[in-house]
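Escalation from tier 1.

The customer reports that the assembly of five entities below gives different structure tokens on two consecutive runs. Tier 1 could not reproduce it. I'm attaching the input and our single run for tier 2 to review.
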Amino acid sequence: QETSEKKPTIQLTQTLPKLDRSTEVVVGMYLIDFDDFNEQEESFTLDGYLFLNWRDERLAFNPSQTGGKHKTYNSGQIWTPNVSFLNIEGKREAAYKELKVKPDGTVSYKEKFTGQFNYELDLKEFPFDNQKIQIILTTLDDSKNIIFTVDKTKTGKSQDAFLAGWTIGEEQANVRTIKSDIEEAYFPEFVYEIDVFRYSKPYIWNIILPLLFIIGLSWTVFWSRSFESNTVIATSSLLSAIAFNIVVAEELPKVAYLTFINGFILIVYIFICLVVIYTVVKHRLDLEKQKERSLKIDRVARWLVPVMFAASNIGLLAFFLL
Amino acid sequence: QETSEKKPTIQLTQTLPKLDRSTEVVVGMYLIDFDDFNEQEESFTLDGYLFLNWRDERLAFNPSQTGGKHKTYNSGQIWTPNVSFLNIEGKREAAYKELKVKPDGTVSYKEKFTGQFNYELDLKEFPFDNQKIQIILTTLDDSKNIIFTVDKTKTGKSQDAFLAGWTIGEEQANVRTIKSDIEEAYFPEFVYEIDVFRYSKPYIWNIILPLLFIIGLSWTVFWSRSFESNTVIATSSLLSAIAFNIVVAEELPKVAYLTFINGFILIVYIFICLVVIYTVVKHRLDLEKQKERSLKIDRVARWLVPVMFAASNIGLLAFFLL
Amino acid sequence: QETSEKKPTIQLTQTLPKLDRSTEVVVGMYLIDFDDFNEQEESFTLDGYLFLNWRDERLAFNPSQTGGKHKTYNSGQIWTPNVSFLNIEGKREAAYKELKVKPDGTVSYKEKFTGQFNYELDLKEFPFDNQKIQIILTTLDDSKNIIFTVDKTKTGKSQDAFLAGWTIGEEQANVRTIKSDIEEAYFPEFVYEIDVFRYSKPYIWNIILPLLFIIGLSWTVFWSRSFESNTVIATSSLLSAIAFNIVVAEELPKVAYLTFINGFILIVYIFICLVVIYTVVKHRLDLEKQKERSLKIDRVARWLVPVMFAASNIGLLAFFLL
Amino acid sequence: QETSEKKPTIQLTQTLPKLDRSTEVVVGMYLIDFDDFNEQEESFTLDGYLFLNWRDERLAFNPSQTGGKHKTYNSGQIWTPNVSFLNIEGKREAAYKELKVKPDGTVSYKEKFTGQFNYELDLKEFPFDNQKIQIILTTLDDSKNIIFTVDKTKTGKSQDAFLAGWTIGEEQANVRTIKSDIEEAYFPEFVYEIDVFRYSKPYIWNIILPLLFIIGLSWTVFWSRSFESNTVIATSSLLSAIAFNIVVAEELPKVAYLTFINGFILIVYIFICLVVIYTVVKHRLDLEKQKERSLKIDRVARWLVPVMFAASNIGLLAFFLL
Amino acid sequence: QETSEKKPTIQLTQTLPKLDRSTEVVVGMYLIDFDDFNEQEESFTLDGYLFLNWRDERLAFNPSQTGGKHKTYNSGQIWTPNVSFLNIEGKREAAYKELKVKPDGTVSYKEKFTGQFNYELDLKEFPFDNQKIQIILTTLDDSKNIIFTVDKTKTGKSQDAFLAGWTIGEEQANVRTIKSDIEEAYFPEFVYEIDVFRYSKPYIWNIILPLLFIIGLSWTVFWSRSFESNTVIATSSLLSAIAFNIVVAEELPKVAYLTFINGFILIVYIFICLVVIYTVVKHRLDLEKQKERSLKIDRVARWLVPVMFAASNIGLLAFFLL
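Tier 1 run:
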């Protein structure tokens, strides 16, 4: 929005510090806090500090003349690397920007930003999943002009940062150079990664444990001799499983693969169907006066079905979490 | 928002590069990422690059004098084609804009934009549907003044682009000229199309499979001789089908036609009603001491109803997906 | 936001073209697309073009001197009628504005706008209702200064406009003069109306048809002799009707009158209650060894209740839709 | 955002019209329309006109010299009272502002604004509640400098104003002076109040009537002799009451007191519990071969329980609405 | 956004009042109102006044010359401490800002702000929890340059402030100095804390009381001798408990620990499971002709289970609330 009418200023703000070789920009990123993690839209919002350091010898000054140990500029008065986030939705909002120049021309840029970033979740192990969240900073200038290096001292995360439903793990930062697939250019990228681990306990308490109670309830048909009661139990179990299925389906984004929790619910469905079929078979044996066989299969089912259920879930766990 | 008070500048920024013939604008569009696909409101949000290239000889310069290989301008300092998206909601937000001029006066405009676009979904085949998403770029100037051509090298999509719930297919771009139905003018249009394929698996696991379990459950009445149990089974099946009907109805926008999933749920309803009627008929036969006929229709229904159900669904599949 | 410091400019931009008589502003409005129709908040969002044409002789020029057939101005440089929408929430967002002046001083103003408009829905006939959506444009100036006329050639709607859940009908535009009830002034108004017709089919499939299945299910009690089964059927029917009632109540805004669909659900409730009472009466007759009378009322109810239900609904339809 | 660099202008725009005594500002407020009433967050959004009138003799002019009957200024060019809403969330958005000065220096300020206001609902009588919505305008200046008076001719509400779910009643406006509890100052306040009356009919149809049907259904246990049926009826009634309880709880904000509807649902719960206990007692009497007593309590309960229910609700109505 | 082109102005606005020692900034914060408390995202929005007072001797003036008792400046004209909130999402929105300077150079800054703040809820005792909401103000300048002190007279909260669902308690403010973990600097912090107490009554009425009714309902199986009825009662109880579990799970953010309400629901689940197991055991005793033992355990369970349930809940209360 600033238009500099005077030519010389344009030159200063719009040309690179070094015309003959690339300028090294030292990048630091510090996570202040997560604001939101929208799993349905697969995006997260966070606040952070962005630190950029580079040397612009045209700005060097003699501290004894100006009195201060550093000079402060407004954004737009001097050249700054035109950085932007690659995986951001829209553009970042800057709460404030600070530009300080030391006598030798070293420029320190500090910005507090907020942005919403796209991130494709890997939910295969949901609700026992970890995610490696990425923020990618790039620049409009070719890597012939600008190269990034990581400022390890200014890269990190706040101890107060938290994300509802997740534990925040270690962060990591590195730089790389990527060939653009639309322009004849190589662009530098700064990648900030942070591990987050989902709280799986709420899903255990609110989904898995109730479903285990329901499955347990459905197994009472192996002790009961009343077909009417068994029907009520089996249909109630199915209705309950459906309720939890709907809750889980509404919480997760649509993904192309089967998640752990969907696998678990599928096993629950299959075992409830088994119970329904078992109930009808027992009913027919009773109708056909084969009470002996009916009592016999009851005795077997009482331990076989729970064992099969446990085995299925161990198999599921092994398949997903190993 | 910039007002240039000096007359000559106005001339430069507000008149076309060629007054006597049309200016050719080479348009490229590159999809960075989808942010959101709101099916209820039938709109999607995406981030992309917009590339415009044209020649403005008034801006040609001698590189040996100015030192650089290209000049950089701010938006508003020179003439730019006044483009806008036709099917956007509100206006696009630009994360950044870059204007570079080569010595021969070729101007390269690069913009990172975010916009929310209207798109009428064709949900007939839901949840097995594909959509051909369209973004239409047009200009305020008549095609006598501006013509569009496609810049194939700068049109594409990022390998990292993803859309929750969809697979992204091939993109396509072409240009056309449309007669305005309100003004005496022909406007150029640049159309960017991209195919997206819905992940149907979550709907199979979360809707279709549970409904198949429910239908299967309802068929146990063909083996049972207890009217009370059969009533419980039939009413539970109906309640379950209603639960899924409500879930599906809340997920989709209201459309004027029957979708595949609604057709499937309708078949499920009809077959559950059949089961209810069958149950009552069997009960009456038993009441009227016609146990023979009652057992006979049981034997027939056990294979006839599943076959009919399969046939109905094959018919439905044939009707919708062929 | 533009402040013109020079007096003459103020005069030009802030005084009316004709000080002695009213300026005629020819208004055209063209619907590009609907973005959203929020029925709960009774508001809709749309994109459109606003065309204003008037004559300002102070801007007349000699085309042979300036070279172009028309002059282009920025908004704020010349006088423009200060129009605003009366029923808008907040203010309209303009995607772009264009101001062209012909040699005779005729000014053409074209604006692409987006706005959210309040509209009180008439839902009596829901889900078979039509709505007459209104957008009212007015001006800050008294009708002594500005009068509106309709520009029929520039008033219309795009063939591509769509609104999720509605068919778009004919549009209409007219002008009127309204006496302000707060100021001693008459203000001109331009009214753009467009008919929209609700897709009733999704409601038939997702609400009415399932409720008819439920009512049909509840009538099986007229064939059954088991009080236990009849109780299960009647209570399941009531639970299902409640589920649909809750779905409908969440979809509609709270209105002071009974809608068609509420009337229908009320009839369903009443008939399910009838079935419950009928079931208990039949149970008591059986208890009191009056099996003859019990069988007799069964035979009557089998055709009487469906006929009564059909009659009630025909009455409802007649009351609401005629 | 406007910075006037010249000293005299600062004086004119930033000093009060009368330095020695307070300036009287005549305030008018006119409700155009409500946009939204968010009961969960206890806030409402509305559009309105704000009228301010005061006399600034420094702006008096001779109409014969300037030609017009009044002068128009941009906001920022002259002194305006720095008013703001006390109970607004964030700040108000102004769709337009108009500043007119008459020859005697009387300034008329007209603004169309939109704002979201906090309002603590009193839901004790819900859904038969009325609310007295308040908007409070105050100023940054002490009442020694500025005093408010009500402009009755410009205070009112539009006939077209509506609020989904509410009838709009009478508005009222008055002024008062409040001692600040943080600064040594007395600030003038202009209070605009408007009564709104909730549409209670949707709650009667969608919540109260279905619950009455459910209660009525539960009373069939007084006629039935089947314990199994009675159990089904009682548990279904409880499930239905729970469904409505959840719907009501999701609609209302959390309040520290019992609302009428919660009281009603509580009575429904208690009576369904009574029915359950009654059912078990009757079952035990039947088990203990005391059929005479069992039939006797049935005869009493048939009229006693409905009478008790009616009495409880009359008591509830008396307690809440009187 | 303001660019001061003249060097001296830059000096005045961008250098600290005292170059040799730290400037004391007296901070006051006053809560006007809460706008929203989003528990799912663990953030709250509020409006408040921010008061800053400091002395800038460069601005001292002689009141007899300028006529007024204080001078008013626009933000950007003089130096102001660059404060920002540490735990804010994005940046604060200022409804207005006021800068007054007294003759001795004391500057009073008053701002009405709105901001959304992150806050990690401690929900262990939910719904009987209290929260200590924190707002932390910091500055870009090192504590060598700026130190904060609390302005107790201007720190407080409005009597009209309310927060839907919470009682507002006492506020507290203090200052501290924090070592940055990314920069070699100590930053001053001003911490405003306010206690809020949740309204637990809506949760008692809408969740805990219905669950107690359900548990009570499930205990009727100790009086009944019908296995079919007992099955219906037990499964209905489980379905009801699931409904409330889903409601609670949707209301709370995912947390890594068990909340009080989750503990309560867990106890309810366990007791309903006990009832189911009890029912089947009694059924088997009846089948095995051990009616004596069956009647005996009924007599014991009638008082033992309620006592165990009460004991469990007292234990839960003791564990969580003590």
